[in-house]
Amino acid sequence: MNKQRWLSQNFFVFFITWGVFLPYWTGWLVQDKGLSITSASLIMGFGLVARGIATMFVFPIASKYMSSQTVVLVLTIISLIVTVLYIPVTSFGMLFVVTIIFNAVYPTLLPAIESTASSLVQQSGVNYGKSRSYGSLGFIISVLIISMLTGYFGEGAILWSMMVGLCLMLLIRFFPSPAELLVKPTKKDRRENLSLRDLWKVKSFPIVLLMVILLQGAHASYYNYGYIYLQELGVNSFYIGMIINIAVIFEIIYFSKAEIFKNWKPSSLLLLAAIGSTLRWVLVFLFPNVWVFIFSQSLHALSFGVAHFAFISYLTKNLPKQQLPNAQGVYSAFALSWSTAVLTLIGGYLYEISSGLAFLGMIICTIPAIVIIILTRKRFGY
After folding, report:
1. Per-residue model confidence as pLDDT tens digits over 282-324
2. Distances in whole angstroms, Cα of residue 338 to Cα of each of 24, 86, 199, 233, 332
3. Domain Major facilitator superfamily associated spans what residues (predicted)?
4. Which of 68, 80, 237, 374 is the Cys-Cys partner for 166 at CB 3.0 to 4.6 Å?
5. How far apart are CA 23 and CA 143, in angstroms?
6. For residue 250, how many C-alpha atoms fall within 13 Å in the half-sphere facing its CB?
């Protein structure tokens, strides 16, 4: 079996669904379900809290009792079932409940797939950046398709597109998988498995985690309000998809060449990401027009791509394979969920005052990150 191809295909298919969820879900709640921006932000914020709890606790525990392949299969099936529940729901209360459940299940697929990737990198020497670039490609294709579908059929097409994507994910689960991902943990493995508490004993882990919490959380306004912001600037729905894809194109370019940076220290990569992220949000605030926003999209390669690669590189070089699910769960919970949840609420408040201010507010994370990296990189040796 070509494990590189297998990982690339799995990243590609998952990120087709992620391209529906990440840029469009808040906008879909506003425009198809009739919620206000504040109400949708509240629902998505609490959804991120649920997502963090699931990825930090439920996913690592499930990984101790089920094979990696089974974990992904179960999460995919439940995600598809919950998505169907959205169809009849219209009230705020029911949308809140369904979104909480959906966020507790579907986004957990991300650390599950990332964990399989880390295992294949450690055990089989798979090139992470190369396979991850196919995920970004899937994201681009998804956003383009959604932008065309919403242009013709309206925002209702977003939910149906998610269902189709999850069905595709379910289908590939029945294809042959790498043998190491089919192994079910034994009782001995569970006894020898390292706990979450052991992660904090790794001297540099807490500080590296703090950096990615700040840097990934700083994307909250972009993820939740970028689509609405571009509409406010008068951009047609079809072109919004193209503009969102510019960020992912630069992400693909970076991931496809990421091995060039494999000898860089994580601290150097994180510093580069923090500087790029700060510049990105300041530009969007200072120049509220489409062309500057388009240019700022190129900085996604730094603000997201470099920060993410830095953390994955740190994990594969510094942690044993038994700790990978725990580390991925903590990363997804704190950096990709809870920090984003808090900053989504802050961003929503700022957006009501001024749309540009929601983006500028994200430097509350990036500037402290720059300072902390400079002050701690030598002391903690990361």
Report:
1. 999 999 999 999 999 999 999 999 999 899 888 888 877 777 7
2. 19, 24, 19, 29, 9
3. 6-355
4. 80
5. 8
6. 19
Identify residue 21 by its one-letter amino acid code: F
pLDDT tens-digit series, residues 224-274: 788 889 988 888 877 887 888 898 889 888 888 877 777 788 899 999 999
Give the CATH number, domain containing residue 352.
1.20.1250.20
CA-based nearest residue to 72, from 63, 83, 85, 84: 63
Tell me the C-alpha to C-alpha distance, in Å, between residue 98 and each of 39, 57, 170, 284: 14, 20, 21, 33
Question: How far from the centroid of its chain's Cα atoms is residue 89's Cα?
Answer: 26
| Cα 43 to Cα 96: distance, rounded to the nearest angstrom | 6
Q: How far apart are CA 351 and CA 128, in angstroms?
A: 36
- Amino acid identity for residue 346 in this structure: I
Total tally of structural domains belonging to the chain? 1
Do the Cβ atoms of 196 and 51 come closer than 8 Å? no
- Burial profile 68-104: b = 16 or more Cβ within 10 angstroms, e = fewer: bbbbbbebbebbbebbeebeeeeebeebbebbbbbbb
- In sequence order, the 6+-apart residues with CB closer than 8 A to the CB of 9 are 134, 172
Q: Which residues, at least 6 apart from 33, have a Cβ–Cβ distance to it below 8 Å?
A: 89, 90, 95
Strand, helix or coil at 124? helix
**Token pair 């299940």: residue:** 105
Concatenating the DSSP letter of every residue in 63-75 gives: HHHS-HHHHHHHH
CA pair distance 214, 212, nearest whole angstrom: 5
Question: 138, 372, 370, 145: which is closest to 237 by C-alpha?
Answer: 145
Q: Kindly tell me the number of DSSP H helices and DSSP E strands found in the chain.
A: 21, 0
Task: Identify the domain containing residue 302 by its residue range.
Answer: 3-380
138 in Cβ contact with 12 (< 8 Å): yes
pTM of the model: 0.79
- Distance, C-alpha 49 to centroid of its chain: 14
Give the separation between CA 307 and CA 336, rounded to whole angstroms: 12
The alpha-carbon radius of gyration of the chain (Å, integer) is: 20
Distance, in Å, from the CA atom of 357 to the CA atom of 91, rounded to the nearest integer, reads 30
